[in-house]
Amino acid sequence: MAKKFSRTSADRRKVGRRHPLAAVALIAVGLLSTGGAYALFTTSATADTSASQEQLVEEGGKLFAANCATCHGMDLQGTSEGPTLIGVGEAAVHFQVSTGRMPLAASGPQAEEKPVQFTDEQIEAMYTFVGSKSPGPGLPDEETIAGNGDAALGGELFRINCAMCHNVAGAGGALTQGKFAPSLAGVTSTHVYEAMVTGPQNMPVFNNNNLTLEDKADIITYLQFLEANPSPGGFDLGNLGPVSEGLFIWIFGLGAIVAITVWLTAKSN
């Protein structure tokens, strides 16, 4: 008769025990799976972004060749009809094209704002193309143009750096040889920032050594404050200062006094 054997509790524990490295192996497999999936996703996203960027550059190159290269050259080197665009960056192209200043309608003292001739997608393609050829100032981030800066400090910086041309209230003003500083009323914060970093027309360039990003944000905040708070004194006479105000008093104020005097004299006679 065969002898019957049974496992003891100690034997059962020995058989059911995991290898000491099993937990490490499971963690390693999990990390490799997660890392592989992330790498695959990131690679796919990067490839899609790269393809989209290349398509933008290609489309922008076609638009540039058809609308800009005659004056600025196929390689952005400039010609006798237009300046070089090497180093101007995306901000300059976006400012000039999205305000209608470019393409230039006719030669003159300076390019004037006019209806925009391109869609937002076409404008993006053009500034992406120029930026890919030669890096320069880029478009602002949302934090800089959000209007969350110090309006009082921005007003002080504006009066020091900008008011001599644009007027203390941003109403604009005349310059020499038929040139002018445009009014800043209704100008978007993006365009204000781009003008500061690229110096269009007769405007100087305010890089981050002249005005920091915080300074630019403060100036933009001040201009937004002016936009949202009209003159508390009533009719602002174009915000052109004491000249227009004095002229108004001489013509209408003294004119009214003379008219009343003549009326009183004629009535007494």
Give the biggest sheet. Answer: 2 strands, antiparallel
Main CATH class of the largest domain = Mainly Alpha
Rg to the nearest angstrom?
A: 34 Å
Helix content percent band: 55-70%
Shape category:
elongated
| Amino-to-carboxy terminus distance | 158 Å
Helix/strand class: mainly alpha
Task: Give unreliable regions as ranges.
Answer: none
CATH architecture of the largest domain: Orthogonal Bundle
Which percent range describes the beta-strand content?
under 5%
* Average pLDDT taken over every residue: 84
How large is the count of helical segments? 11
> According to CATH, what is the topology of the largest domain?
Cytochrome Bc1 Complex, Chain D, domain 2
Number of strands: 2
Q: What is the succession of H and E elements?
A: HHHHHHHHEEHHH
